[in-house]
Amino acid sequence: MTIKPALVSVFGVGLVSLSASVLAHHGDAGRYEDKLTTLKGTVVELQLINPHSVVVLDVKDETSDQVIRWRGEAGSATQLRGWCWTKEVIKPGDTVTMIGRRLKNGSPYMTLSENSRVIDANGKEIFRGNDPGQPNQPGPCAPARTGGGR
Fold it and tell me: Do the strands 37-47 and 54-60 form a parallel or antiparallel pair, or are they unpaired?
């Protein structure tokens, strides 16, 4: 009889620990502006990494004429591969437009999640974030999902 309460306690502690780490990673409510910001600039680097890929972009500030280095945080490398992204999709020197929500503190950093877009120099949408409250949608190169799984 004493083993069962001990197992419940261990399970409970594990569950609380897990939920804290999940909230720490994805607890960004209030961190980004609600309105979308559109930036057009020159690609410096594409980091296809997990858990979040990053697009580094040099953007000319219209008011000061200075170049500001922006970072756009996107989904995982796996998610972006589903959108057919490789290191060849956007390369240093390419011009792209990023639409996303910037940090409220004014730093040159945005999230490419809900309602976001990345558009290449030819006007082709090469990434689309999920609609608010909806799960991420698979891109055109994502593996087909089959029924009957978990």
Answer: antiparallel
